[in-house]
Amino acid sequence: MEKVTLSVIKADVGGHVGHSAMHPKLPARARKELEESKKGGKILDYCVTHCGDDLELIMTHRGGVDDEEIHKIAWDVFMACTGEAKALKLYGAGQDMLKDSFSGNVKGMGPGVAELAFTERKSEPVLVFMADKTAPGAWNLPLYKIFADPFNTIGLIIDPAMHDGFTFEVLDAKEGKTIEFNTPEEMYDLLAYIGSTGRYLIKTVKTKKGEPCAASSTQKLSQIAGKYVGKDDPVCFVRCQSGMPAVGEVLEPFSFPHLVTGWMRGSHNGPLMPVSVKQATPSRFDGPPRVTCLGFQLNEGMLGDPRDMFDDPSFDQARSMANKQAYYMRMHGPFEPHRLPPEDLEYTALPQIQERVKHRFKPV
Ligand code: 13P
Ligand code: 13P
Ligand code: MG
Ligand code: MG
Fold it and tell me: Measured between alpha carbons, how far is 112 from 306 in angstroms, rounded to an integer?
C-alpha cells in the first residue's frame, strides 16, 4: 500500500492581541488556500488550527517527507496569511517568515516542521501536539516518558509488541548532527544528552524494527535568524496503539506541567500547561507556555474530525498545578532560575549596560 505522509508545518505570522492568540481571519484564509490545494489533488486532507499566536497546518499527502510542493504550499499559505496579518496590523506580522522567497524546503526558513511517511495500519490513531511560548526541547521529557518510562507507559512491560523498546534519534542542535539511542538498554546514555533540552532534541522515535512512531519540529528560529525573533513554538506528533503507546499513555506525561524555556520574551522558565484549543491563549506574562493536542483517526489518508484531547477535566489538576507553579516562578521576577541565565537569554540589554558601566569596575 502507498505510504501516507503526515506533515505538520507551523509559523507565527502575527498575533492578536500582542503574542496572545490568533485573529480568526488567519485560519480562515489558510483553510481557503488549503481547500484549493486539496481540490488540485496535491494534498489529501488538511486541518488548520492554532496554538496561541502560532498557525498550525496539519496535512496528509503521498509526497513523502521534504516534498518540495508540499513545503511550497505551506509557505504560500503563510505568506497569504502574513498579508492578512499586515492588513490588520497584527503584532509581529510575518514574524517567522525569515526569508524573502521560497527555496525548496521550509526548513531553515522560519516555519517549524514535523513529518513522517508511513503505511497506514488497520486503525491509525495519531496525536498532534502543538506548543506556544516555548522551544523544541520541551518535547524531550514527554517523548522520553511515552517511549521509555514504564512508570508512564505500562505497555512497555505488559504489551509483548512494545517490550523490545524503541530507538530515539537525537539532534545536536549546536553541531547539526544526529545520533540514535536504543532503549531500554541505552536509557542512561540517552538521558545524559536529552536532559540538556537547549541543545539535544529528540527528532524522531521508531520501533527497533524501524517503524516510525513520532516526529518533532527541531527548527530553532534564533539560530536561523541569528537573533531573537520570537520563540520556536514547536510541534510534534505520535502514532498510537497496536505496538505503539496507547493514546492515554501518550497524553499521560502532560499531566505533569514540567518547566520549559520560553514564556515572556522567550527568556524565562515556566510550566507547560496542557489546554484545549480554546484555552490556548497565553496571556499572563505572555504565558504560561501552552500545549494543545488534536487527535485523529486516519482513514485512507484522510484526517477526519479532530478531537481536542486536553479539553477534558482529567487535565484540570495539571492546569491548576501549572498555575501554582507559574505564581511560584513569577515571584522570582528578574532572578534566575525564572529568568534564563545570560547565555540562554533570547535578548538582553546586558552588553549595552556593560559598555556603559565598565569603567566603574574596580579591581579587588
Ligand atoms: P517588542 O515589544 O519590542 O516586540 O518586544 C516584546 C516582545 O513581545 C518580544 O517579542
Ligand atoms: P511568540 O514566540 O509566541 O511570538 O512570543 C514572543 C514573545 O516574546 C512573547 O513574550
Ligand atoms: Mg508572536
Ligand atoms: Mg508563538
Answer: 21
